[in-house]
């Protein structure tokens, strides 16, 4: 999987592109399955990708964890979302209306701060 992702990004792609890819994959997966399962599946892949590119894995791992916590757009990704679904009379689309803007903000903030807090090449 790691080799496939690196191949898609290109051999000379920047670690920042890797960060974006891992974050995006993590966000998409966590909205359709458990955030714990998403993170458990992606941590080994993220480590392999970072090693394959010669980058410090800390930023990539944090992108995996933070992206895996962005389960805002569906009731599936987080148990608390499912608990309030029927109690609040919400529909599936209500989660997307509220969650997508939150995901966009989380993505922008994360992609700005992660390379600063965890440089790719310390």
Automatic annotation (TrEMBL):
Q: Which GO terms describe its cellular component?
A: plasma membrane
The membrane topology of this protein is: Multi-pass membrane protein
Gene Ontology biological process: transmembrane transport
Residue stretches making up the Citrate transporter-like domain: 12-118
Domain of life of the organism encoding this protein:
Bacteria
Q: Where mainly located?
A: membrane
Cell compartments where the protein resides:
Membrane
Q: Where are the transmembrane segments?
A: 16-47, 59-78, 98-120
Which keywords belong to this entry?
Membrane, Repeat, Transmembrane, Transmembrane helix, Transport
| InterPro entries found in the cross-reference section | Cit_transptr-like_dom, DASS-Related_Transporters
- One Pfam family for this entry, by name? CitMHS
Which PANTHER family does the protein's record reference?
BASIC AMINO ACID ANTIPORTER YFCC-RELATED (PTHR43652), RESPONSE REGULATOR (PTHR43652:SF1)
Protein name per UniProt:
Cation transporter
Organism taxonomic ancestry = Bacteria, Pseudomonadati, Pseudomonadota, Gammaproteobacteria, Enterobacterales
């Amino acid at each position: 999987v790691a080799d496939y992702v690196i191949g898609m990004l290109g051999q000379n792609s920047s670690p920042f592109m890797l960060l974006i890819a891992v974050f995006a994959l993590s966000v998409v997966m966590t909205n359709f399955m458990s955030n714990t399962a998403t993170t458990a599946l992606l941590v080994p892949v993220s480590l392999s990708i970072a090693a394959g590119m010669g980058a410090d894995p800390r930023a990539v791992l944090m992108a995996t964890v933070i992206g895996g916590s962005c389960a805002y757009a569906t009731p599936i990704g987080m148990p608390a979302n499912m608990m309030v679904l029927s109690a609040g009379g919400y529909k599936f689309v209500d989660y997307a209306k509220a969650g997508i803007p939150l995901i966009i903000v989380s993505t922008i903030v994360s992609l700005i701060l992660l390379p600063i807090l965890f440089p790719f090449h310390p």
